[in-house]
Amino acid sequence: MMPQRPLVHALILGIFCLVFGVILATTDVFTHDTIKLRAVEDLQNSLTLVIPASIHDNNPVSDAVVVKDNGRAVTVYRAMKGGKVTGAAYAIEGVGYGGPITLMLGVDPEGHILGVRATAFHETPGLGDRIDAAKSDWITRFTGLWLGNPPADKWKVKKDGGVFDQFAGATITPRGVVAAIRNGLAFFAQHKADILEVRR
């Protein structure tokens, strides 16, 4: 009887693994479309925060283009009105105290900022999380600025000789956001022709 006991335990463990594997696979099949739909909704919500509805009559997601930038593909969501590109939005990344910060940057055809919003980050609550527009208006202060206003060498926090405020006790986060926005504007300037081109 003793030699069969490990075999019985292995069989029970195998059955449990099989049952829970089937449950996980079934859950994945049934929730996959919902998760995908939620991701599209989140993207649409982010775009509405950085591209004013008044400047387009299209769905920017439908008029997206992919721009190659230093070996990586960047999806640019284009706002259009009357067949012309009136704005563009794309994800940019910076590095904060808590790791990567993902932002959505919206610009007009001249490269002026229409809006910026933090979409994913892990910054310290009460300090670095003030990049979230729901917690502070700091991120909204970039609206209307462009790479020449302020001058490119002033796109830094004040502590580094720039013009942008940092947070008391949290300089790394604003530093990362300002650098990401500066780089995002430089990306637009470099690829402006490709972004604004409308192919028929």
Automatic annotation (TrEMBL):
Flavoprotein as a keyword of this entry, yes or no, is yes
Residue ranges of every copy of the FMN-binding domain listed in the record: 96-188
Keywords in alphabetical order: Electron transport, Flavoprotein, FMN, Phosphoprotein, Transport
Q: Which GO terms describe its biological process?
A: electron transport chain
Read off the Pfam families from this record.
FMN_bind (PF04205)
Q: Which GO terms describe its molecular function?
A: electron transfer activity; FMN binding
Q: Does the keyword Phosphoprotein apply?
A: yes
- Give GO cellular component annotations, separated by semicolons: plasma membrane
Give the protein's recorded name. Electron transport complex subunit RnfG
Phylogenetic lineage: unclassified sequences, metagenomes, ecological metagenomes
Q: Which gene encodes it?
A: rnfG_6
